[in-house]
Amino acid sequence: MTTIDLNCDLGEGFGAWEMGNDAAMIELATSVNVACGFHAGDPDIMRHTVELAKARGVSVGAHPGYRDLHGFGRRPMPGLKSSEIENLVAYQIGALQAIATAAGHRVTHVKAHGAISNVACEDDMTARAIANAIKAVDPNLIFVVLANSKLVTAGEAANLPVVHEVFADRAYEDDGQLVSRKKPGAVLHDPKAIADRVVRMVQDGAVVSVTGKVIKMRTDTVCIHGDTPGAVEIGRGVRQALKDAGIAVAPFKTPH
Question: DSSP for 36-104?
Answer without folding.
Answer: -SSSS--HHHHHHHHHHHHHHT-EEEEE---S-TTTTT-S--TT--HHHHHHHHHHHHHHHHHHHHHTT
